[in-house]
Structure prediction request, 514 residues.
Amino acid sequence: MANRYSLWSLIKNGLKHHESWQPAWKSPQPKKQYDVIIVGGGGHGLATAYYLAKEHGIKNVAVLEKGYLGGGNTARNTTIIRSNYLWDEAAHLYEHGLKLWEGLSQDLNFNVMFSQRGVMNVGHTLQDMRDIERRANANLLNGVDAVVMTPQEIKDMVPLIDISHRTRYPIMGASFQPRGGVARHDAVAWGFARGASELGVDIIEQCEVTGLIIEGGRIKGVNTSRGDIMADRVGCVAAGNSSVLAKMAGLRLPLESHPLQAFVSESMKPCIDTVVMSNAVHGYVSQSDKGELVIGAGIDSYLGYGQRGSPHVIEHTAAAIIEMFPSFSRVRMNRQWGGIVDVSPDACPIISKTRIKGLYFNCGWGTGGFKATPGSGNVFAHTIAHDDPHPLNSAFSLDRFATGHLIDEHGAAAVAH
Amino acid sequence: MLVITCPYCQEAREEEEFSYAGEAYIARPAVPEEVDDATWGDYVFHRKNPRGWHWEQWQHVAGCRKVFAVKRHTVSYEIAGSWTLADGKALYEEEQA
Prediction:
């Protein structure tokens, strides 16, 4: 590896005034032909390319990105990682991802700053608490760690939270996943890009796919803003723009793209050392390594590709956070942004073959794709390499919207959709 | 913040008065018993989700509570107009033809 990062390399380069570090990944010109093309250079796409090269020996791979690496939803989320999903299929898939997160920095030789500070999902109603108990039990049966907490235990862990009965929706308890946490979003994209590039994957930025070349029901390649590139297998991992790509292939997807907004506050001294999420008042908050409060909530209701939403959604989110943390009412907000999330009818992803041979889609992650980045790439790489889904993603096929075998995580998952 | 005109109230009001009600003019299969699962699944779940002009339904929940059609651009969020469902459908079909 050109730059093997270690204490030794840091000292060595420090003595040379840090002037001899090499770029972390190469930026080659696109070749005419690849074995596999991945459309979309976000975390999921880069992870797919990395695992294709590392686990399946397919190294003649290109990742095509229309903008810059990790400039879409990878950089536009709130970096929360957890696997406390209710249904077996979803719990296994996200737990696979979480296990990969646990060794990811070592695997990539790149610090993704994965911090297992725990994720707490608070309940405000009796029904919330019943759901929490049910989900925690389901998690334990699936080998996912889960604890149910009382208001006092919550207060002991998060002293700033208001557990009194003065609030409109008093906190009645919470579920807690100690192995959950956060990671640094940019580092995830960069780490996977560096790892994939080192294994021979071509990462091509500023290369927009404008059409898919399909002959006789088989994919042959893609038209791009930098010329046609041929490949017998094409994996699309384009998040919010998945429907646009699908249309190029004459496919329809069960997706709707919505804006999802988030924002950060000014930097403050450490005050929350875990992630607090609430379904009922609808908001979630954690504190970044820079000291900012990172806050998010639900999607804007309307369909939108604009990477921005409406201000009343932010107002609602801020109100939810202040309901739980009255002391944050004087904190100033610093930045706000929106991403385009592709929401599926059952709030579960689609990692699937399509009726076009050699064309695969990995989409529909909706509001919760970041947590799955390594797991998603891992199983999608398997699906492409074997032209057959990994046992963990066979239930997440496109067919389920015809057979009716949905994995209904809407409302079931510990998530604020 | 979108500013939407309700064709019934004939007033431009802020988005918060309205509720988004999804893609407009999705045709229900005429004889549901006769279509296969894929067609039915397409009707229930699959959507156009275009990057561009989109015909959609909004409900004036804090006003007259009626549902109407809006043609809106999904990138610029520009609104071309709003119509009653019947008036909008005539325009929509003209566009599709």
Remarks:
- Chain B touches chain A at residues 1-2, 15-16, 19-20, 22-23, 37-38, 40-42, 44-51, 54, 56, 72, 74-77 (CB under 8 Å).
